[in-house]
Design goal:
12 strands; six-stranded mixed β-sheet; single chain; 38% helix; alpha/beta; 12 helices; 378 residues
C-alpha cells in the first residue's frame, strides 16, 4: 500500500480525524462543525482509503461532501492496490507486515496461530465478530475501525503531525452531535491533572455504547498516549497466540487492550448519536426515521439517541431564549425570594419550620401552666 497526505495548516491544539468511509450526510457533518469543531477550536482531518489514487479520491470527496472537504485541513489516504482477495484480510496483513513490533519478543518458537484463528473462534457465537468482515468471519466489519486507527497513528508519526498537536480525536463520520462537546474543557482538565494528579494524560471516552467492553466510536487522546492507543490492534495481529482464548466483540477487545496498556480512561456524557444518510451502506442497523431538531434523520441506534437527548436536555428556564410566561416565578433579586409570586423554596421551608416550632412551644407552655396551677375544688 501507499500513503498520500495533504496537509496545509497552522496547527491548533486539537486534531479531530474522521475514520473510514464518509457516512452520515450533510446534517451530521454540519452538527460536527458547529457542536464539536467550532467550540473546541479544532482542526479536522479525514482518514480514508481504497483503491482510488490520491487525486481521484480527493475529487470524489470534493463532489460528494464539499462542506466537509472545505473544512478538512488534513486529508489522509491510504492507497491499496486492487486485490482479488477479501479486502479486510488485506488490511490485517498490512498491519502484520508493517509492524514495528519484534517478531519473537519472548520465545524463538514459531507459532502456527494466526489472526484467522481468533476470527474463527469469535464467529461461532454469532454475536461477537471481533475480526468481522474477513474471510474467516464475514459477518460485520469489526476490522475496519481498528485498522483506520492504526493507519492514523502511522500517518501521524510519518508526517511529524504527532508533534504538531497536543491532543487528538479519532471518531466516526456518521455521528450527529446533538449539543456542544467542548474539548477545551477536557484538555484544560488534563493540564490540571498533569500538575496535580495521577490521572495525567487520560483518554476521554463517551459514556454508553460500551457493548460489554468500552465504547470505540469516539476517543480523545493526549499526544503522549495517542500512538500506543491507536495501535492497539497491532499486538493482536502480530502475536495472535496471546489472544487465542479471547472471546468478545470489538468493544471488548478495545477495552482489554486499553487496560493492558494501563491507560487511564475518563468518561463524559454521550452527546452524539449515529445516523445514516440515504444511500449509506451499513452491515448492522438500518435505523429508524425520526423527526429531530426540525430535521428528518435516520437514527441507527435508539438507545444511543435517547441517551444523547437526555444528556443534552436543558430545563426551559435555563435556556438562553427563555421568555417568562404567566405562572412562572422569575428570580429578580439576589435575596433568594422571587419578585413576583410566592416565596422561594428556602424561605418557605424556614416559615414552615418556624410555625411548627411555635406550635410546639405554645403546647409546652400550656402544659407547664396547667401543672403549676392548683386544682379547682369540687
Amino acid at each position: 500500500f501507499s500513503l498520500g497526505v495533504v496537509f496545509f495548516v497552522d496547527a491548533k491544539v486539537v486534531l479531530v480525524t474522521l475514520l473510514g468511509n464518509l457516512r452520515g450526510g450533510e446534517r451530521a457533518w454540519h452538527s460536527l462543525e458547529i457542536n464539536l469543531l467550532d467550540p473546541s477550536d479544532a482542526d479536522l482531518a479525514l482518514m480514508i482509503g481504497g483503491t482510488a489514487d490520491l487525486n481521484s479520491a480527493s475529487l470524489e470527496i470534493q463532489n460528494s461532501a464539499p462542506d466537509l472537504f472545505r473544512r478538512a485541513e488534513g486529508r489522509f489516504w491510504y492507497h491499496q492496490e486492487s486485490s482479488t482477495t477479501n479486502t479486510f484480510d488485506d488490511l490485517l496483513e498490512i498491519i502484520r507486515t508493517n509492524s514495528s513490533l519484534p517478531l519473537f519478543p519472548k520465545s524463538p518458537v514459531v507459532s502456527n496461530v494466526t489472526w484467522r484463528d481468533i476470527a474463527i473462534n469469535n464467529s461461532r457465537d454469532g454475536t461477537l465478530h471481533v475480526l468481522g468482515g474477513t474471510s474467516a468471519d464475514p459477518t460485520g466489519n469489526g476490522v475496519a475501525i481498528p485498522f483506520y486507527k492504526w493507519m492514523l497513528s502511522r500517518t501521524l508519526e510519518a508526517t511529524g503531525l504527532i508533534h504538531s498537536y497536543d491532543y487528538f480525536v479519532a471518531t466516526r463520520s456518521d455521528y450527529y452531535y446533538n449539543c456542544q462537546v467542548n474539548l477545551q474543557t477536557m484538555f484544560q482538565k488534563g493540564k490540571k491533572y498533569t500538575q496535580n494528579r495521577k490521572e495525567a494524560g487520560s483518554l476521554w471516552i463517551p459514556q454508553g455504547a460500551d457493548n460489554h467492553g468500552l465504547c470505540d466510536r469516539f476517543v480523545f487522546l493526549p499526544r503522549k498516549h495517542a500512538v500506543r492507543a491507536l495501535q492497539f490492534i497491532e499486538k493482536v495481529v502480530v502475536y495472535p497466540e496471546q489472544y487465542l482464548q479471547f472471546l468478545g466483540n470489538p468493544e471488548a477487545l478495545w477495552g482489554l487492550r486499553i487496560r493492558q496498556l494501563r491507560l487511564s480512561v475518563k468518561r463524559f456524557p454521550l452527546r452524539m448519536f449515529s445516523v445514516r444518510a440515504e444511500g449509506d451502506s451499513t452491515r448492522w442497523s438500518q435505523g429508524d426515521r425520526v423527526r429531530h431538531n426540525d430535521s428528518d434523520l435516520i437514527v441507527k441506534y435508539g438507545s444511543e439517541f435517547e441517551a444523547a437527548k437526555q444528556s443534552c436536555y436543558i430545563p426551559r428556564k435555563k435556556r438562553a431564549d427563555y421568555v417568562p410566561t404567566k405562572g412562572d416565578h422569575v428570580n429578580n433579586n439576589k435575596s433568594g425570594t422571587h419578585g413576583t409570586g410566592s416565596p422561594s423554596l428556602l424561605t418557605g421551608t424556614v416559615l414552615v419550620a418556624l410555625v411548627v416550632c411555635g406550635a410546639s412551644l405554645v403546647r409546652f407552655l400550656f402544659r407547664t401552666a396547667d401543672q403549676l396551677l392548683p386544682y379547682e375544688a369540687h
